[in-house]
């Protein structure tokens, strides 16, 4: 029997997000579902590399403490949990979740695991596929291949919920689709009802970054004040069977939900607003209107959608060399000139030593590291030199930090607070893969 | 007194691979009209000349009093492989807020808040 409406809360907007706001939503928000969206573009590739070192790992590194705090609240309040914290090992994440439940005295927790997003072998076996970003054939990045995952849609999440399991764990699923799955399941909509998928997708998109619609990533003291940001609440959406959508938050929580916060999030990561492509539909936000219906309550109307495309987007993570970096600070009179001189010394030293980099950036944090150079900016009191080089060789990457550190005794006056690091470059590009090649399935994991 | 985008609007940056989108959301309908007239693709491209190859595409969302700019081909490989400190381009909304509105017509000198009437 389909419900008349469902309330879905957002429990995380990225891999490392806080979870007190999720517990608050579960305990005080009157929600039916809590959804933890924890996968940025590179996350699965990073977790795939982690799993190579630990076959039982590869899921969200914060899963254990998060589930430990959240599961008992879910059980106490009858809230079902949907999450992509499975990352590169959804089955491992489900087993861990069941273990945590057992250890917490919750003996009947089952997890439905959505599988099939990992298309690494399919991609490796299909030379000639074009990368959307560079236009090169996919073979060009196969030597460093870490993982290839398709963005699955809401239908798989709906089917996982239909098993009755309290917890649904996935790998890569498109962010809004994690939220649309419960709507499809509860409200009895067909997966081909594009009028409803439009409203659902708008709601899912507004929720997917959690605190970003309740006043996070928003505040600008003065013109855009946000109350109680340290206690920022996460959002929920009330979605009715007729497609009415209202975004809100727990009253006692910090933050704000209004037309300004919702408009910023509605357009977040949207390119052509008439064609926001998800696995479920092609969303058109151009006719959307936002209405403030009460304090911290915004009604969303006017979403439209066209039928979904014939392919899944696949994001491919691959190792692409190293970044070596060194930093050093300068303060007081003429700090900018001393830092610039220091940067030029490092550039010349690298050249004298015959060390060549695919890319070398020398910039001053406090002057031009974020937005590049500009003529009319006031000079700051203190600045931080940042030298970073990209290279195929780890040894070369390490030399950057050493050269910066050597400025202590050999460089301009007053260099302070050196830091250096070398990191692997995990790059990501995308391809489109025909839907019929991607086979999804659901596995149930219960107490051992 | 010089008028900037920040006087009329708020902004949010979002990344997607090698491109970034930046929304410019006017506080008032009149501000939207003024931004629609003056904040052209070329004006935004000029502000991003050191950071991106372009092009810049502008989308108009009158029901939201918003413009959406898509800036393509960020230098250094974009979000997923960049050596930049701000690998996601999340700070780039701040650059759009600094863009000065010079006014294309006499009515625009009155701080713009009265728009085109």
Largest sheet of chain A: 10 strands, mixed
**SSE order of chain A, one letter for each helix or strand:** EHEHHEHEHEHEHHEEHEEEEEEHEEHHEE
Give the fraction of residues assigned to helices of chain A. 25-40%
Number of domains of chain A: 2
Give helix and strand order of chain B, one letter per element, not per position: EHEEHHEEHE
Strand content of chain A: 25-35%
Query: Which class best fits the helix and strand makeup of chain A?
Result: alpha+beta
Regarding CATH, which class of the domain at 3-82 in chain B?
Answer: Alpha Beta
Task: Give a quick precis of the structure.
The complex is a heterodimer of chains A (448) and B (117). Chain A has 448 residues and is of the alpha+beta class.
How does this structure look, described?
The complex is a heterodimer of chains A (448) and B (117). Chain A is α+β, with helices and mostly antiparallel strands. Chain A has two domains: 271 residues, no CATH class; 114 residues, 2-Layer Sandwich (Alpha-Beta Plaits), CATH 3.30.70.100. Chain A is built from twelve helices and 18 strands. In chain A, the strands form three sheets. Chain A has a ten-stranded mixed beta sheet with strand order 11-12-8-7-1-2-3-6-4-18, with helices on both faces. In chain A, strands 5, 14, 15, 16 and 17 form a five-stranded antiparallel beta sheet that branches. In chain A, α6 crosses α7. Chain A starts with a strand and ends with a strand. Chain B is α+β, with helices and mostly antiparallel strands and 117 residues long. Chain B contains four helices and six strands, in the order βαββααββαβ. In chain B, the strands form two sheets. Chain B has a four-stranded antiparallel beta sheet. Chain B has a two-stranded antiparallel ribbon with strand order 1-6. Chain B is globular and about 40 Å long. The two termini of chain B are 22 Å apart. The C terminus of chain B is likely disordered. At the A-B interface, α9, β15, β16 and β17 of A face β2, β3, β4, β5 and α4 of B.
């Amino acid at each position: 029997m389909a419900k008349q409406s469902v309330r879905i809360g957002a429990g995380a907007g990225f891999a490392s997000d806080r979870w007190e706001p999720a517990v608050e939503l579960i305990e005080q928000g009157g929600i039916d579902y809590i959804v933890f969206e924890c996968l940025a573009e590179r996350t699965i590739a990073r977790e795939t590399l982690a799993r190579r070192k630990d076959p039982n790992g590869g899921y969200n590194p914060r899963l254990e403490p998060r589930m430990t705090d959240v599961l008992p609240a879910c059980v106490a309040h009858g809230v079902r949990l949907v999450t992509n914290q499975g990352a590169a090992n959804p089955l491992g994440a489900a087993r861990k979740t069941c273990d945590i439940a057992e250890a917490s005295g919750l003996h009947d927790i089952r997890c439905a695991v959505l599988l099939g997003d990992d298309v690494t072998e399919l991609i490796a076996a299909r030379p000639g596929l074009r990368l959307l970003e560079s236009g090169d054939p996919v073979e060009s990045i196969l030597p460093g291949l870490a993982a290839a995952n398709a963005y699955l849609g809401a239908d798989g999440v709906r089917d996982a919920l239909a098993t009755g399991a309290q917890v649904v764990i996935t790998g890569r699923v498109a962010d809004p689709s994690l939220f649309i799955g419960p709507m499809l399941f509860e409200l009895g909509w067909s997966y081909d009802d594009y009028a409803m998928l439009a409203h659902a997708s708008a709601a899912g998109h507004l929720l997917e970054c959690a605190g970003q619609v309740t006043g996070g990533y928003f505040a600008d003291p003065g013109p855009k004040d946000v109350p109680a940001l340290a206690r920022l609440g996460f959002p929920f959406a009330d979605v009715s069977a007729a497609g009415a959508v209202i975004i809100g938050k727990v009253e006692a929580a910090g933050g704000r939900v209004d037309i300004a916060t919702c408009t910023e999030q509605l357009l977040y990561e949207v390119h052509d607003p008439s064609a926001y492509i998800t696995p479920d539909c092609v969303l058109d936000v151009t006719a959307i209107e936002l209405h403030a219906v009460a304090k911290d309550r915004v009604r969303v109307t006017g979403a439209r959608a066209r039928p979904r495309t014939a392919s899944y987007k696949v994001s491919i993570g691959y190792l692409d060399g190293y970044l070596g970096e060194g930093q050093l600070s300068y303060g007081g009179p003429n700090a900018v000139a001393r830092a610039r001189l220091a940067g030029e010394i490092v550039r010349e030293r690298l050249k004298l030593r015959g060390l060549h980099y695919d890319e070398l950036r020398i910039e001053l944090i406090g002057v031009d590291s974020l937005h590049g150079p500009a003529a009319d900016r006031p000079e700051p009191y203190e600045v931080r030199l940042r030298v970073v080089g990209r290279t195929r060789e780890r040894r070369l990457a390490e030399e950057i930090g050493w050269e910066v550190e050597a400025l202590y005794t050999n460089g301009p006056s007053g260099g302070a607070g050196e830091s250096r690091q070398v990191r692997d470059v995990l790059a990501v590009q995308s391809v489109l893969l025909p839907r019929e090649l991607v086979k999804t399935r659901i596995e149930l994991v219960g107490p051992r | 007194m010089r008028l900037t985008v920040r006087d009329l609007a708020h902004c949010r940056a979002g990344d997607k691979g090698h491109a970034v989108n930046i929304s410019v959301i006017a506080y008032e309908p009149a501000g939207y009209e003024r931004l629609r007239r003056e904040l052209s693709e070329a004006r935004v491209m000029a502000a991003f000349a050191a950071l991106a190859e372009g092009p810049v595409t502008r989308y108009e969302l009158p029901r939201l009093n918003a413009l959406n700019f898509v800036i393509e081909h960020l230098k250094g490989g974009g979000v997923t492989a960049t050596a930049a400190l701000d690998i996601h381009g999340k700070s780039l909304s701040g650059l759009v807020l600094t863009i000065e509105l010079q006014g294309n017509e006499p009515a625009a000198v009155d701080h713009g808040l009265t728009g085109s009437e």
